[in-house]
TrEMBL record:
It comes from Anaeromicropila herbilytica. The active site is at residues 89, 271. Substrate binds at residues 89-93, 143, 194, 221. Catalyzes the base-exchange of a guanine (G) residue with the queuine precursor 7-aminomethyl-7-deazaguanine (PreQ1) at position 34 (anticodon wobble position) in tRNAs with GU(N) anticodons (tRNA-Asp, -Asn, -His and -Tyr). Catalysis occurs through a double-displacement mechanism. The nucleophile active site attacks the C1' of nucleotide 34 to detach the guanine base from the RNA, forming a covalent enzyme-RNA intermediate. The proton acceptor active site deprotonates the incoming PreQ1, allowing a nucleophilic attack on the C1' of the ribose to form the product. Keywords: Glycosyltransferase, Metal-binding, Queuosine biosynthesis, Transferase, tRNA processing, Zinc. Its cofactor is Zn(2+). Its EC number is 2.4.2.29. Pathway: tRNA modification; tRNA-queuosine biosynthesis. This is Queuine tRNA-ribosyltransferase. The keyword Metal-binding applies. Homodimer. Within each dimer, one monomer is responsible for RNA recognition and catalysis, while the other monomer binds to the replacement base PreQ1. PANTHER family: QUEUINE TRNA-RIBOSYLTRANSFERASE (PTHR46499). Binds 1 zinc ion per subunit.
Length: 378
């Protein structure tokens, strides 16, 4: 259940009650594709870096170790030792990213596994069954993420199919939640709005799925090749047609600047691989923009990644030491970088919530964006 605490312009400050705890929104979900954050970060570490929600991938866990295995071990929370909310995406994005390995039909999608090539079929019912076996807090509806650019005809047909699939997802989830052996009988369902950069298709689809009274709504198919300006325009045009009393999730986005702009346009939930992926490549997010610790100028720098940061990396280690670890290809270097970046994102979301609650979001956003430009100009 979603409770709207305050609105500052279009920015929303809310609380989302789930069976695994209350999520304070806006929130950034930390991406653990295969039930682990890349960079040797444990669930105990996640607690320390202010993580509220962990996100795992339905397709990847279905392929390995298998959702039946996870169910036999008590579900994803027990399996990975995490007691807070988990969102599982539906496998729909893999329809997009595994373009060379799949065939889309009305009944669902035929895949070849990216691991060993074996044939997989996934439709709305299968996606819901896998997510029910994983017993996540929030399940995402199975959709097609259309390519960018796509023709209007392709986009309309794809969106119509996604709507038909959503109805099947809803019916199957209702059935699964009523079964005796279902681990999480309170699993929630978020529907996904699609339509690429065709705002009229987006708006019509938003109106249509809003009538289904789902637990939340996502904007999918953005950050797939369109410009940031196009993405912001679509968010701005579409969000007003989604229910104000439900959370809105912008899938796969993004940079700190993307998040600040999307919050300003009414988005509540975010996820992105950037903080972990960029951390593993030596890039640290700071209030002065992105910093590349591989640069020679940090060789003798005994300051923390960011002064005043309370993350475990900044509290205990210097830029010089972390740079040495990265250069020496020591796993600890990646771990410290990912830890810092996830803490930075989660801490920024805390600041965002505070700013909205105190009706000063516009000033906060401007100051934050101005700060990010410092390193970018160097």
């Amino acid at each position: 259940m979603y409770k709207l605490i305050n609105r500052d312009g279009n920015a929303k400050r809310g609380e989302f009650k789930t069976v695994h705890g209350t999520i304070q929104t806006p929130v950034f979900m930390n991406v653990g594709t295969a039930a682990a954050i890349k960079g040797a970060v444990s669930t105990m570490d996640l607690q320390e870096m202010k993580t509220q929600v962990e996100l795992s991938n339905t397709y990847h866990l279905h392929v390995r170790p298998g959702d039946q295995v996870v169910k036999k071990l008590g579900g994803l929370h027990k399996f990975m030792n995490w007691d807070k909310p988990i969102l599982t995406d539906s496998g729909g994005f893999q329809v997009f990213s595994l373009a060379g390995l799949r065939k889309i039909k009305e009944e669902g999608v035929y895949f070849s596994s990216h691991i060993d090539g074996h044939k997989i079929f996934m439709g709305p019912e299968e996606s819901m069954q896998i997510q029910s076996n994983l017993a996540s807090t929030i399940a995402m509806a199975f959709d097609e993420c259309p390519p960018h650019p796509a023709t209007r005809e392709y986009m309309q047909n794809s969106v119509d199919r996604t709507t038909r699939w959503l109805l099947r997802c809803k019916a199957e989830m209702d059935r699964l939640n009523s079964l005796e052996d279902t681990i999480n009988k309170h699993q929630m369902l978020f529907g996904i709005n699609q339509g690429g950069t065709f705002e009229d298709i987006r708006i019509e689809h938003a109106k249509l799925i809003s009538e289904l009274d789902l637990d939340g709504y996502a904007l999918g198919g953005l950050a797939v090749g369109e410009s940031h300006e196009e993405m912001y325009r679509i968010i701005e045009e579409t969000v007003p047609y989604l229910p104000i009393e439900k959370p809105v999730y912008l899938m796969g986005v993004g940079t700190p600047a993307n998040i600040l702009e999307a919050v300003d346009r009414g988005v509540d939930f975010f996820d992105c691989v950037y903080p972990a992926r960029n951390g593993r490549h030596g890039h640290a997010y700071t209030n002065q923009g992105k910093m590349n610790l591989m640069n020679a100028k940090y060789e003798l720098d005994d300051k923390p990644i960011e002064e005043g940061c309370n993350c475990p990396a900044c509290k205990h280690y210097s830029r010089a030491y972390i740079r040495h670890l990265l250069k020496a290809k020591e796993m600890l270097g990646l771990r410290l970088m990912v830890t810092h970046n996830l803490y930075f994102y989660n801490n920024m979301m805390e600041e965002i919530r505070d700013a909205i609650e105190n009706n000063r979001y516009k000033e906060y956003k401007k100051a934050k964006l101005d700060g990010f430009l410092i390193n970018d100009k160097k």
